[in-house]
Amino acid sequence: MTTATDVAVAQAAALLLRSHSGIAFTGAGVSVESGIPHFRGEGGLWTKFDPYKVAHIDTFRKDPSQYWTYSLNHRRTDAEPNPAHRALVELERLGHLRAVITQNTDGLHQRAGSKEVIELHGSSHSVVCLDCEARFPRDQVDRMNREHCPPSCPACGGQFLKPTVVLFGEALPMPALREAQALAMAADLVLIVGSSLQVYPAAGIPRLARQHGAELCIVNAEATPFDEVASAVIHGKAGEVLPEIVRRMGTG
Ligand code: NAD
Ligand code: ZN
Q1: pLDDT one-digit tens code per residue, 187-233
Q2: How many domains does the chain have?
Q3: Gap from CA of 167 to ligand 2 centroid (Å)
Q4: Are residues 236 and 160 in the same domain?
Q5: Do 56 and 93 have their domain in common?
Q6: Which domain holds residue 239?
Q7: Does one domain contain both 23 and 84?
Q8: Ligand 1 pocket, 79 CB below 6 A?
Q9: Which of 62, 107, 197, 223 has its CA 20 to 30 A from that of 166?
Q10: Is residue 195 within 6 Å of ligand 1 at its C-beta?
Q11: Same domain, 178 and 218
């Protein structure tokens, strides 16, 4: 670790130690070390695929089989939480974080043991029928998809089964957004991990928190547009940096 990183880690540890209403705001980068690719930035999926073709609600409605074929070939079902997810569990347990607000749909924060998790972009583990609104576990639909792609709704026979993930062109789930906004307005610190902070309205959450007086601490592999207004910025891997911050909090 360089001296500059070491100083920033110490700053982050001090910020967390004095926080009473901190929140974490996470993005795809927190799951990269679990083997799930991120979207933007170096090596991201959107450098290989056009998001408006594979992840837009209009394209999905025209032809859901494209999505389900992609899912058949690319969906990771064996991903496990990594040390970054576990460090966030520890910070919640120690009383330094009230909640994790995530843009991720992989469910790894919950799997790791975080209790208060707000999913701004839905979940890839549940599937909804766009015709009758019945919901099904992803595992069940994946099994159906392996037999017949695209799968159809077991309740009404509809052809539009969609994971509850928010696709481009769709609104964010209002209850999750409202809850995240309330936490942001009350927060004294936002620990931002693995997000390019380029996707709105989600990136509006740390911005709102800052407008209401919160300090920002950023852990990300690359620079972000919020770096210059943050109190501590650490460019590195979440799975290495977060456990180091937690260790530093214990040793002073
Ligand atoms: P993003 O892809 O825009 O940004 C991820 C950031 O993480 C990048 O800046 C990258 O440099 C950084 N990063 C990569 N590896 C890292 C590591 N090991 N440690 C720390 N940082 C690392 O992701 P975002 O900001 O979450 O963008 C939001 C969109 O991505 C949302 O729509 C979200 O739903 C979606 N998404 C979710 C998942 C998932 O559930 N795991 C995966 C891909 C994309
Ligand atoms: Zn249905």
Answers
A1: 999 999 999 999 899 999 999 999 999 999 999 999 999 999 999 99
A2: 2
A3: 19
A4: no
A5: no
A6: 1-36+80-121+172-252
A7: yes
A8: no
A9: 223
A10: yes
A11: yes
Do 189 and 219 sit in the same domain of this protein?
yes
pLDDT in tens, 148-187: 999 999 999 999 999 999 998 999 999 999 999 999 999 9
- The residues assigned a catalytic role are 121
Residue tagged 């998809």 (tokens): 145
Ligand 1 atom with minimal separation from the 106 CA: 40
What CATH number is given to the structural domain containing 200?
3.40.50.1220
83 lines ligand 1 (CB under 6 A): no
Q: What is the Cβ-side half-sphere exposure of residue 176, based on CA atoms within 13 angstroms? A: 22
Whether ligand 1 lies within 6 angstroms of the CB of 29 is answered as yes
Q: CATH number for the domain including 142?
A: 3.30.1600.10
Our mutation pick for probing the ligand 1 site, out of 39, 108, 170, counting the most ligand atoms within 8 A of Cβ, is: 39
112 and 223 share a domain?
yes
